[in-house]
Design a protein that fits this description.
single chain; 3-stranded mixed sheet; 3 helices; 6 strands; 54% helix; 19% strand
Length: 155
């Protein structure tokens, strides 16, 4: 109920009924303002976490490449390779706990909000706009794209 409507319904503007309505309207407005403020604070925290993750992603990329290079070599279990695997697992586990998710690319259509096209190639029999190859994984934290997936799309 609006304050003006309450004033027309209750002739005594200082009466207890009007005071209750005014108090309720004031509480609702304060609650709405507090909710907007909380949402903005949450958004700022999420942006800060995304910035931290953004700075960590080159480390993740280098560990991924080191692990891939080490695994493509000899088949024996090298202590260095084992150590890289442990760091890799721990870092990915930490990023998972923060809520970081890889952007889907398998069988996906190109989405400029999630993907960055670095090249396009025509492929017979495949519809244009499909992701053909991923050059760098993309990540998002809730709705925040921390880093878009760098992809090659079909033309």
């Amino acid at each position: 109920v609006d304050i003006e409507v309450a004033a027309t319904l209750y002739p005594d503007p200082g009466g207890p009924a009007v005071q209750v309505i005014v108090r309720d309207v004031t509480k609702r407005k304060r609650s709405e303002a507090a909710l907007r403020e909380s949402e903005e604070q949450f958004r700022q925290i999420a942006e800060t976490i995304a910035d931290v993750i953004r700075d960590l992603l080159p480390v993740v990329d280098n560990i991924d490449r080191a692990l891939q290079a080490a695994e493509s070599g000899e088949t024996g279990e090298d202590p260095l390779l084992q150590g890289i695997r442990m760091v890799h697992l721990e870092l990915h586990s930490y990023l998972d706990r923060l809520g970081l998710k890889a952007i889907e690319t398998d069988g996906a259509r190109f989405d400029p909000a999630l993907h960055e096209a670095i090249a396009s190639i025509p492929i017979d029999g495949i519809e244009p706009g499909q992701i053909h190859e991923v050059h760098q994984k993309g990540f998002q934290l809730d709705e925040i794209v921390v880093r878009p997936a760098r992809v090659v799309v079909t033309a």
